[in-house]
Amino acid sequence: MHTLLILVCCSSILVNNCVYAQHLHEQIEISKTEILDVILQLSGKIDTVNRKTDNIQKEIVNIQEEMTYMKLMFGSNGLIANELNDKLSLLPTHISNMAVNMGNSITDSVSYEIKELKKDTNLADRVADINSTINQMDQRLSTISIGVQDLAPRRSCADLYKLGRKISGPAQIAPYMHSCNYVPVLCDQDSDGGRWTVIQKRQVVEPREDFQKPWADYAQGFGKLEGGEFWAGLDLLHALSKQGNQELLIELEDWEGEKRWAKYSTFKIGPPEDNYRLTVSGYTGDAGNNMGYHNGMPFSTHDHDNDNWYTESNCASYFGGGWWFKACMNANLNGVPNQGTDTLNSHGILWVRWHGRMYSLKSTTMKIRPSE
């Protein structure tokens, strides 16, 4: 317990440091942006000086050309020509003065901006200091991120696999959003690339687990994870579904030792207020697509009937177990355990498209993982 509290406190400190470091990093980025804006403004004003100087030079050339033309036109008229020459001769000086005044005005403005910037600190030194601070903060953030990753909640067996825990068996995960509450699960890190969270297990053990449970037990989960039979719980299935699209793998075995499988590329369980409604599609495998029949159905138990069967009837009460019954089923992997054909019609662990309704399977496993 003390170790867990220490880990929680360390996690909180690391997260707070990470938030502070991120805030400081953002402030540094803002300062860099402000300096770059000043540099861009200065560059823009210098470009403006250059453009206006070029325009003045072009105007001078145009006026000089007009002066030459007028001299040719009025050269024979002595008085008019002399007066015109006197006035035109003043134009270059006037234009030159205008250019100088305009240039001085812009130069003064640029000089003022530079002086204001230098009052704060030397621009090159400031940029260098900012870059140095950024590098230091990046190193701190990297260290903090590694620490936070070590203490980060594991939301599924797939997360454990990514973090290097590639051994199958019982584990603890924190599947619920915005919560570090851990729950026990069984991970399969070997089958078909691993990353599976096992959600159901039926097998021949003594004593057998009773799957004729009420609604509350199916919501919470029950059974023995290691070496026994269990149901992981509808709340857990819904929490894993909220993390993103899941795929479902069902493994079946009969009493003659033959094995079949069914895989679905989409598997989702709705919230409790929608009675944990099933969404399943994208079948592949050799066992037959029985889950497709139950797609869109809410979950039912003997004390919580949603099966669309006769008004006074209840599939879970009559055939046993809790399932996404649909008046009543093509599959019921939570049914009453019987041995092979030693069963009544539809009473047993059923997968109808493999062995029909008069055969109860020996073992089953249901497991899910995030789609890639």
UniProtKB/TrEMBL annotation:
Every Fibrinogen C-terminal domain range: 148-372
GO CC annotations on file: extracellular space
Record's signal peptide: 1-21
Entry keywords, A to Z: Disulfide bond, Signal
Superkingdom assignment: Eukaryota
Protein name per UniProt: Fibrinogen C-terminal domain-containing protein
InterPro entries: Fibrinogen-like_C (IPR036056), Fibrinogen_a/b/g_C_1 (IPR014716), Fibrinogen_a/b/g_C_dom (IPR002181), Fibrinogen_C-term_domain (IPR050373), Fibrinogen_CS (IPR020837)
PANTHER family: FIBRINOGEN/TENASCIN/ANGIOPOEITIN
Function: Lectin involved in innate immunity. Agglutinates all types of human erythrocytes, Gram-positive and Gram-negative bacteria. Has a stronger agglutinating activity towards Gram-negative bacteria than towards Gram-positive bacteria. Specifically recognizes acetyl group-containing substances on agglutinated cells. The hemagglutinating activity was inhibited by EDTA, acetyl group-containing mono- and disaccharides, N-acetyl derivatives of amino acids, other acetyl group-containing substances, propionamide and benzamide.
Organism of derivation: Meganyctiphanes norvegica
A single MF term (Gene Ontology): carbohydrate binding
